[in-house]
Amino acid sequence: MINIKELQKEVMRNKIEKGFNTTDVALEFCRAHEELSEAFSKFNRNHPGVAEEFADVAVFLLGMSEILGFDLEKELIRKIEINKNRKYKKEKSPDGKDVFIRVRTEEDP
Fold it and tell me: Where are the beta strands (DSSP E) in 3-106?
C-alpha cells in the first residue's frame, strides 16, 4: 500500500536535492496548473502522456502539501467520505441536458 505521507517527504527530498523551489507556494500552484493544462492539451489532442502529466500534477500537490504541513492522505480519505455521503438530484439544464445538483443538508459547510 502506498504511504502518501512518505511520498510527500520523498518529493520534498528530491526538491531539496535538485535545488527546486521549496518556499514559493504561489509558484507551485502555477506549476501544478501548468502541468494540468498540459494533461488536458494531450488528452484533447488524443496524444500520449496524459497519465505522466497527471503524475506531475500529483508531485506538485504532494510537494505543496509537505511545504504547508498538510497530511494529504488524511485529507483525501476525509474528502472521499464526504463525497460518498453527498446526495444529488438530476435536473434538466436550460438547454435540456441532464445535470446533477447537490442536495444541501445541515451537515454541509
Answer: 87-92, 98-103
**Domain locations along the chain:** 4-103
CB 15 within 8 A of CB 22: yes
Q: Which CATH superfamily is domain 4-103 in?
A: MazG-like (1.10.287.1080)
Question: Which residue spans within 40-97 are E strands per DSSP?
Answer: 87-92
For 20, phi and psi rounded to 5 degrees? -80, 165
* Residue 77 · residue 38 · CB < 8 Å: no
Express each pLDDT in 27-56 by its tens digit: 999 999 999 999 999 999 999 999 999 999
